[in-house]
Each structure stands twice: as structure tokens, then as C-alpha cells.
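Task card 7
Instruction: Convert sequence to C-alpha cells.
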Amino acid sequence: MNVSLSKVLAADTAGHEIHKIHEYASLALAGATPIAALAAKDEPLEKIANIVLGVAIPIHSHVALNACVSDYIPSAARGAVRGGVLGVTAVTFLGLLKLNVFGAGITQSVKGLWNKPQKA
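Output:
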């Protein structure tokens, strides 16, 4: 598989390789989401789901955001905007990695949205 920086920057129009990666990320999200929802806290299956989600979410979002760039951004500004999308993708990946490694993880963070706040 030959994936260059130009293909990553224009991920929506880069051809078969990037679309295959996007397809695999979609399948990973479809598989990891129910596993994450059903896994018990600190179970190994939850940790695996967190890692899969932490990789698949930025990849899937990157390709989808590049499609939005192609559809809505004028041609003259696309290069700069695509660079910004790549930066957002990198920050998202690093943030989710930090949450998974040093924090509660994606799964517990999302499940925490439905927990009652603890009284001080």
C-alpha cells in the first residue's frame, strides 16, 4: 500500500487505498462501539475497544471532513483547509490516545455522561 502525504491531505479523492482504510475504520467503529457499550469497566475487552475507537474515530473523521472540504471550500483555499483538517486529526488522535492511556478511556468517559454527579 502506497500512501503519501498528498493522499492523506486529500483523503476523499486519493483513490482506492485511502477509501479502503476508511472502510476498515468504519467496520472497526461498527464492531467496537457495541463491545465498548457492553463491556464491564476495566475489562480487557473494554481496553481493546478503547484503542480501536481511538484509532478508527480520527481516521474516519479525517476522510469525511476532507469530503466536506471538497464540497464546500473554494478550490483556492482547499490546501490550507486540508492542512488544518490534518492538524485536527492529529490532535484528535493524540487526545484520544492520552485519554485511553492516562485517563478513564473513551468508553468510561462517554458512559460518565449518564452518571449522576457526585455530591461534594
